[in-house]
Amino acid sequence: MNLRLTDAVELVKTIADGITGLEGVDVLVAPPFTHLSHVRKAIGDSKIFLGGQNMHWEASGAYTGEISGRMLQEATCTHVILGHSERRIIFGETSEKIDLKVKAATFLGLIPIVCVGETLEEKEAGKTFDVIQTQLDLSLHNFKADELMRPSTILAYEPVWAIGTGRTATPGQAQEVHRFIREWIENNFNTGTAAQVRILYGGSVKPENIADLMSEPDIDGALVGGASLKGDSFVQIVRFKKA
Q1: What are the average pLDDT values for consecutive 10-residue runs of the chain, which has 243 residues?
Q2: Cβ atoms of 87 and 97 closer than 8 Å
Q3: Which residues, including other chains, have CB under 8 Å from residue 200's CB and lie 6 or more apart?
Q4: CATH of the domain at 133
């Protein structure tokens, strides 16, 4: 819940200019719902994907204050973030509800970016892998029931203790969890799907640590928070290989 409309438009223009000519990297922005159409215009012909920050699992109905997947599609979104830790913790979203959203998004052809991650208390209690497995099992229950996970699905590991705190999981710590997630995909689906699904890391990602994080074999990208609100820093992250 950041940036006024004019700032959001200016930000995406800075990003579009900054990634001109860049190949081999997918860039996505997920502005607030009220900014979507304006940001879409600002993206223009640039290769920037547009995503929603959340959605409801129903197509329509008496759900005041909610946004449906079809509404996101009408705003030309191709992706939607689901199960972000702030949705889980602040707004009490359960993994079961997130599963309904993932199912609805996938049915519509929206690519879900499904977030999982443990709190500081869970980490210090040695429960990281138990928490991640439970969140995956419940948030992707319908995929498991159908024995099918689309390779376009994106997962994001965002340790809650590292979001906005300045504390970042070391590349080794992040890799350990990413490897666990990839093995979960392989065990529940197949090796091919596990190899194709992208797993992002989110948690105080910034220009100074992106190269080290991306050097790990199972970290496929980043879910960038605060550093994405400034065009220059976000472009540095996107273009980390050129740094």
Answers
A1: 98 97 96 98 97 98 98 98 96 98 98 96 95 98 97 97 79 97 98 98 94 97 96 97 74
A2: no
A3: 113, 154, 155, 156, 157, 219, 220, 221, 222, 223
A4: 3.20.20.70
Predicted local confidence at residue 39, as pLDDT: 98
DSSP string across 205-243: --TTTHHHHHTSTT--EE---GGGGSHHHHHHHHTGGG-
What is the spatial distance between Cα 236 and Cα 12, in angstroms, rounded to a whole number?
A: 14
Residue 73 in tokens: 């599609």
Task: Return the active site residues.
Answer: 84, 158
* Integer CA distances (angstroms), 52 to 114, 123, 176, 180, in order: 12, 29, 29, 27
As given in the structure block, the two tokens for residue 137 are 């099992």
Alpha-carbon span 128 to 133, nearest angstrom:
9
Domain carrying residue 144: 5-242
Question: How many domains, in total, are found in the chain?
Answer: 1
* Tokens linked to 150: 């689309």
Give the other-Cβ count within 10 Å of 165's Cβ.
12
Are residues 136 and 181 in contact, defined by beta-carbon separation less than 8 angstroms?
yes
